[in-house]
Amino acid sequence: MEIKVFASIKEKVGSDTIDLFVGDSISVGDLKNHIFVDYPELDGEVFQVAKNEAFVKDDELVTSSDTVALIPPVSGG
């Protein structure tokens, strides 16, 4: 599964995407846990998960055919 990343997450992983092998589908909560194991540099990073351009909760399933993104908090003025 290719996951789009932005801002501080992008800086920490050194790329605008991360690739994870997660099988056919996975819950968002399990996806987050998998990310923290495979990318320990993201430990403690705060972000929301978007599936097909909509924020989703930890119990939602995502598949490899979905567009998945990690969105860190945005500040502005």
List keywords for this structure.
about 80 residues; alpha+beta; Ubiquitin-like (UB roll); 5-stranded mixed beta sheet; two-stranded antiparallel sheet; about 25% helix; globular; Mopterin_synth/thiamin_S_b
Rounded to the nearest angstrom, the distance between the terminal CA atoms is 34 Å
Number of domains: 1
- CATH fold description: Ubiquitin-like (UB roll)
Beta-strand level of the residues, as a percent range?
Answer: 25-35%
* CATH class category label: Alpha Beta
**Global geometry:** globular
The CATH architecture designation is Roll
Instruction: Give the ordered list of helices and strands.
Output: EHEEHEEEE
Low-confidence stretches: none
